[in-house]
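Usage

Read records sequentially. Each one opens with the input sequence:
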Amino acid sequence: MLQVVDYLKANGFTVYVVSGTDRFIVRGLVEASPLDLPTQQLIGSDESLVATDQGDTDGLDYQFDENDQLVMGGEFLVKNLDMNKVTVIQQEIGKQPVLAFGNSSSDFSMAQYAVNNNKYKAKAFMLCCDDTERENGNPEKAAKMVKSCDENGFTAISMKNDWKTIYGDSVTRK
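and closes with the structure output:
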């Protein structure tokens, strides 16, 4: 996927990571990777944020002060999966994507949004984790994913057959 991101960036595309994982975890993972994407292009699930001394006071009734720090409040605001991904893409990016890449059925709404009623030519790709030697693949789940891709007009990508490298040389499978 790193090569895909590099290719898209080199050819004028703006690349976003839109994940169901917590937004702050997405930021940390991408910042520690060679992706080189700015924070505003990293979208994930959102949890409430509160001031350390805020307690149960509503944010409209609380004034952040010099002694406060911003901490996670523990309440999910948006779990960025399924239809929520479509909503968040529109709210944060404001444009219908022309390419979508996913790896689970919770990415199907995003893929459908990309390819349907788009004024541009669009395509959706789904990664199928079918490699049991280099990855903890599940051939049965991968076969279901391929079938769903065929039914929906998405392109299935096989980790086993389409990827030369899954992890770098210094990474070993356990």
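Summary fields computed downstream for this record:
- DSSP finds six helices and six strands in the chain.
- The CA atoms of residues 8 and 15 lie 7 Å apart.
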